[in-house]
Amino acid sequence: MSESILFIGGARSGKSRLAEARTLQFGQPATYIATAEAWDDEMTARIAAHQAQRAGSAWHTYAAPRDLVAALHATDSSPRLVDCLTLWLTNIMLAGLDWQVEGKALVAALAAQSAPVVLVSNEVGMGIVPDNRLARDFRDAAGRLNQWVAQAADEVHFVSAGLSMRMK
Amino acid sequence: MSESILFIGGARSGKSRLAEARTLQFGQPATYIATAEAWDDEMTARIAAHQAQRAGSAWHTYAAPRDLVAALHATDSSPRLVDCLTLWLTNIMLAGLDWQVEGKALVAALAAQSAPVVLVSNEVGMGIVPDNRLARDFRDAAGRLNQWVAQAADEVHFVSAGLSMRMK
Amino acid sequence: MSESILFIGGARSGKSRLAEARTLQFGQPATYIATAEAWDDEMTARIAAHQAQRAGSAWHTYAAPRDLVAALHATDSSPRLVDCLTLWLTNIMLAGLDWQVEGKALVAALAAQSAPVVLVSNEVGMGIVPDNRLARDFRDAAGRLNQWVAQAADEVHFVSAGLSMRMK
């Protein structure tokens, strides 16, 4: 069974950069499994900025806004970076899919991989309770998904200010 | 003097589950001191979900939405889990009570217990500054209460994604 | 080259108090470089409360809402505490200055100091994505500034509930 590693941290905490470096330790080229969808100019700019960081021959990119399980099985010959779980969860919920079913399928798929998988996720539960129910439900789902993936992972790192502390 | 232990983390970080396990290490049955009040359907569902996790004979439940000091003194013959301080603070403030007076009384009560007390609390200060003053005041109070309880505690654990790091 | 040390944590996490104690370990009197500006009654009260904590002869105060580089050079004969970077960034952005230019100048100035510098900053990226673009941009800038300063620092501490974990 392969290794799976989770980097969890805040927005702009540097978690993607740390996760990229960790993925490349397993060898090159690696596959960047992108869950982001560019639905407006702001998101397009964010995706482009992240892609610029990965310029060069070290990475293949595989777009998987929703079907992460298929993406993992299709790329199981190289180290993978899944960036990020929080956007994937957003896409799942916006598409009206059952995030618990999808989340459990993801955890099962992780256990079935041969090549390593590094995953990036956001800690979103350390602010004030959001005003609206939708945001609270998302926060709950994100927190539970993080717990599931962390439980399945071999290594978990907590990230702030570009630095990490190993939790597992 | 008894041991007191604090688990602090985000929403849905798994802190309650870790705190439950830690409490039961001190022996069974333990007492679950619930500070949640079911004032709407959403809250009722959250409370029921938490109760389902504790099904079985290991736990007695003691409701204490506001009078936590009395609850601690009434249950000082078994290990206790206070879940959670952040909801208790909310109840205190909604009732128009002085949270600093109540918080200091709580810290004094902790020092006077014979049986262990495990407490759960939320880190709520790691998001963007809230728009409204009430939320900012609550955030300040929650942060200060966490500091007071952490200072009084023998052990403090920081929780994210179902995993903990010991801070004290 | 001098030492620089970063304390990063949530609102009311006790990070200022820990940073004050760390600064005074380098000797007295130390200089408190205050970035807060009192633009309303609430802020005036917050500043007064922080000043009351530092009463006595151990501290000189130097106000630097925007020109932190000049403040560092003007005070390079004693240990300094910069409290805090997040308010400084707010002031920079409100003044219409380029935070990236200012942030890079700050990092360069840190490397040129003779006396130690302790800095306080907020982790603001662990809540739900803010509704408005301005808040998201601020969150991004704060996260990146924290990464830059943490990379330049010799020591970085993550703070919650008045306790710290060393990240670097």
TrEMBL record, chains A, B, C:
<dbReference type="InterPro" id="IPR027417">
    <property type="entry name" value="P-loop_NTPase"/>
</dbReference>
<comment type="pathway">
    <text>Cofactor biosynthesis; adenosylcobalamin biosynthesis; adenosylcobalamin from cob(II)yrinate a,c-diamide: step 5/7.</text>
</comment>
<keyword id="KW-0169">Cobalamin biosynthesis</keyword>
<dbReference type="Pfam" id="PF02283">
    <property type="entry name" value="CobU"/>
</dbReference>
<keyword id="KW-0418">Kinase</keyword>
<keyword id="KW-0548">Nucleotidyltransferase</keyword>
<feature type="binding site">
    <location>
        <begin position="34"/>
        <end position="36"/>
    </location>
    <ligand>
        <name>GTP</name>
    </ligand>
</feature>
<comment type="pathway">
    <text>Cofactor biosynthesis; adenosylcobalamin biosynthesis; adenosylcobalamin from cob(II)yrinate a,c-diamide: step 6/7.</text>
</comment>
<keyword id="KW-0547">Nucleotide-binding</keyword>
<dbReference type="GO" id="GO:0005525">
    <property type="term" value="F:GTP binding"/>
</dbReference>
<dbReference type="InterPro" id="IPR003203">
    <property type="entry name" value="CobU/CobP"/>
</dbReference>
<feature type="binding site">
    <location>
        <position position="83"/>
    </location>
    <ligand>
        <name>GTP</name>
    </ligand>
</feature>
<dbReference type="GO" id="GO:0009236">
    <property type="term" value="P:cobalamin biosynthetic process"/>
</dbReference>
<keyword id="KW-0342">GTP-binding</keyword>
<dbReference type="GO" id="GO:0005524">
    <property type="term" value="F:ATP binding"/>
</dbReference>
<feature type="active site" description="GMP-histidine intermediate">
    <location>
        <position position="50"/>
    </location>
</feature>
<keyword id="KW-0808">Transferase</keyword>
<comment type="similarity">
    <text>Belongs to the CobU/CobP family.</text>
</comment>
<comment type="function">
    <text>Catalyzes ATP-dependent phosphorylation of adenosylcobinamide and addition of GMP to adenosylcobinamide phosphate.</text>
</comment>
<feature type="binding site">
    <location>
        <begin position="9"/>
        <end position="16"/>
    </location>
    <ligand>
        <name>GTP</name>
    </ligand>
</feature>
<dbReference type="GO" id="GO:0043752">
    <property type="term" value="F:adenosylcobinamide kinase activity"/>
</dbReference>
<protein>
    <recommendedName>
        <fullName>Bifunctional adenosylcobalamin biosynthesis protein</fullName>
        <ecNumber>2.7.1.156</ecNumber>
        <ecNumber>2.7.7.62</ecNumber>
    </recommendedName>
</protein>
<keyword id="KW-0067">ATP-binding</keyword>
<dbReference type="GO" id="GO:0008820">
    <property type="term" value="F:cobinamide phosphate guanylyltransferase activity"/>
</dbReference>
